[in-house]
Amino acid sequence: MSARPLSEAPMPTPSRPDPIRTPSQPDPGCSRPATPSPAEADKSVADLAHDLRAACMLVTRRVRYEADNALAPHLVSILARLSREPRTVGELAAIEQVSAPSMSRSVAHLHELGYVDRSADERDGRLVRLSLTAEGADLIHAERLRRDRWMISRMEDLAPEQRQVLREATVLLETVLDR
Question: What is the pLDDT of residues 119-132, one digit of tens each?
Fold first, then answer.
């Protein structure tokens, strides 16, 4: 698609505002946008929701895959969950929304690498609690630093006003997620 030179652009014709107009119709003589109708407002929220979700997914994906991670993203996620508190395979599977057998394989791999420790539950000896080893804690700390550095490298050239917008957006996103 080629842009038409300004000299070829059609000249706007003066128009008179329609005396009978619904609130959602813009006033041609007014630079302020008209109040959107409920249907337009719903579409606007739907468009924003779509765009925001897509942007969040892209940021997450890029951080996970471009930050030179030492482990596959799903394994780092397991370590991050365990860095908060010990859990069972079933709890991890539910949080990560994968099957228990799949989680068992991932945990076994992390255990073989020396990042996860297994111990009997204090209250119920039939349950196995998983926790991070010192090596696992060091690895998750290094992964977080690496991911933060990746994000910093994308943000360091932003103007202070742009960074402030991101701070405010972060608070809003946390509010949305808490609902």
Answer: 988 888 788 999 99
pTM confidence score: 0.64
What is the gyration radius of the CA atoms in the chain, in angstroms? 26
Crossing angle of the two packed helices 100-112 and 73-84, in degrees rounded to 10: 90
More confident residue, 68 or 44: 44
3-class SS at 87?
Answer: strand
Residues 3 and 9: their CA atoms lie apart, in Å, by 10
- How far is residue 83's CA from residue 134's CA, in Å, rounded to a whole number? 11
Whole-angstrom Cα distance, residue 100 to residue 57? 25
**Cα(168)–Cα(166) distance, integer angstroms:** 5
Helix, strand or coil, per DSSP, at residue 118: strand
What is the C-alpha end-to-end distance of the chain, expressed in Å?
Answer: 44
CA distance 112 to 106: 10
Which range (75-84, 103-112, 142-151) has the least confidence? Answer: 142-151
